[in-house]
């Protein structure tokens, strides 16, 4: 009975050493390209640089990308970045800590910039008239009492 404990300890020690010696790693990176290149890329409110531009990231999810270039329309895109099958909530611990190789997740996003659209004068006048009419309508009355005081 006493002799059977020692192999278990050695196995536990060996597994612990393997976990410490062979740590896994996940490298995540995305690249933003535009056609034509040279647009300023702003991701989630932070300037990333002039396209093509790359950035590393830790978390998956949506990114708000704004692309600005002289002579082209400013483009705003919500770009989802979904996690791969090997990097989800169930397998994340193993892929980041126990797999003895570097797992790479490289994403490449390409956007086509459009030349500016010159609106027709009649369209501008219609939009201006709609805004003027909207500005003349009285706002709904605020709620009184304690709820109104609290902003509800």
Radius of gyration: 28 Å
Mean pLDDT: 83
Cross-sheet strand order for the largest sheet: 3-2-5-6
Total number of helical segments?
Answer: 4
Q: What's the N-to-C terminus distance?
A: 71 Å
Low-confidence stretches: none
Report the count of strand segments: 7
Structural class: alpha+beta
| SSE sequence, one letter per element | HEEEEEEHEHH
CATH architecture term of the domain at 17-118: Sandwich
Description of the molecule:
The protein is of the alpha+beta class and 152 residues long. It has a domain at 17-118: Immunoglobulin-like (Sandwich), CATH 2.60.40. It has four helices and seven strands; from the N terminus they run αββββββαβαα. It has helices at residues 5-21, 92-97, 121-136, 145-149; strands spanning 25-35, 40-43, 46-50, 53-56, 61-68, 75-81, 102-112. The chain has a four-stranded antiparallel β-sheet, with no helix packed on it. The radius of gyration is 28 Å and the shape is flat.
